[in-house]
Amino acid sequence: MLVKVLKLFLHIVLILLLTAITQVGGLLYLCCLLIFRKKGKYKYLYFAGIYLFFTFLVVPWLAPLNGRERIENSDTIRPCNYFYVLANRNYVSPQMNETLQTVSHQLNLTYPGLELVYLDANFPFFDGFPLPPHLSHSDGKKIDINFIYQKEGTLSNKKPSLSGYGVYEAPKSNEWDQPSHCEEKGHWQYSFPQFLTFGTWNEELQFADAATKDLLNTMLRHPNTQKVFIEPHLKQRLRLEHKRLRYHGCQAVRHDDHIHLQVH
Ligand SMILES: [Zn+2]
Predict the structure, then answer these.
(1) What separation in Å is there between the alpha carbon of 126 and the centre of ligand 1?
(2) Residue 189, Cβ neighbours under 10 Å: how many?
(3) 6 C-alpha to center of ligand 1: Å?
(4) Taking the model in full, what pTM does it have?
(5) How many angstroms separate the CA atoms of 205 and 69, rounded?
């Protein structure tokens, strides 16, 4: 009896986790549990196959009914790692897709070979369904994008952490220190993404000021752009001033490891 209760509890936890991480995974797992309940351990294998089938063939076909589409990867735009694609975290509105394509092409014209590298976007279905841990990524109109880095003066497509989050371009001693200010006010979550790197690598990379500034300006100029978030000290360092370049507030997480872009 106790084993049965424990098993049920674990299944529920897994359904919730898969829903939080991939949106459709929880429902698919539940269906597999019901349909293949007599198949023993093989049901997990069936689940893996069905999940991949849905992720690559069914969801991309259904998402446009909800006004979302997969980000079109190309020579100029790609995810930071394949997890974002595998977990269905790469869906955006058509306006966002168009904006990303235009911005990445313009970036590539200025810096041949340089890629626009994205992180979490949105799930494929249901407006108002957030993409944890980003509460605002719930309508297809938001995406996180990596900064540009360089190695020994040469621009690189590499990023300093596996997830693309959590390695900060922190305030220098002469710059306004918003993260400390927010933490002193009790916003403990502000630097939380430092625990979400899933490993740091390419430690020799340095923040590329000029190229990141060009990327930000290209985004800010695009008519579809509604808001861009970066940390105040980077705005100051890059000498950027634009009505669409905003500060997100202490209740969010810090934005000196990535750019947040929002379109109309
Ligand atoms: Zn974001």
Answers:
(1) 18
(2) 14
(3) 36
(4) 0.93
(5) 33
Is the model's pLDDT at 39 over the cut of 90?
no
151 and 99, same domain (yes or no): yes
- Taking each helix axis from N to C end, the angle separating 94-110 and 209-221, rounded to the nearest 10 degrees, works out to 140
The alpha carbon of 144 and the centre of ligand 1 are apart by a number of angstroms equal to 5
The rounded Å distance from CA 16 to ligand 1 centre is 22
Q: Are both 86 and 131 inside the same structural domain?
A: yes
- 3-state DSSP assignment of residue 72: coil
How many angstroms does the Cα of residue 184 sit away from the middle of ligand 1?
Answer: 23
If you measure from the C-alpha of residue 10 to the centroid of ligand 1, how many angstroms do you get, rounded to a whole number?
A: 31
Range of the domain at 26: 2-64
Question: Do residues 175 and 200 share a domain?
Answer: yes
Per-residue pLDDT of 150-184, as tens digits, reads 999 899 999 999 999 999 999 999 999 999 999 99
Residue 185 CA, ligand 1 centroid: distance in Å: 22
pLDDT tens-place string over residues 188-215: 999 998 999 999 988 899 999 999 999 9
Structure tokens at 197: 């790197």
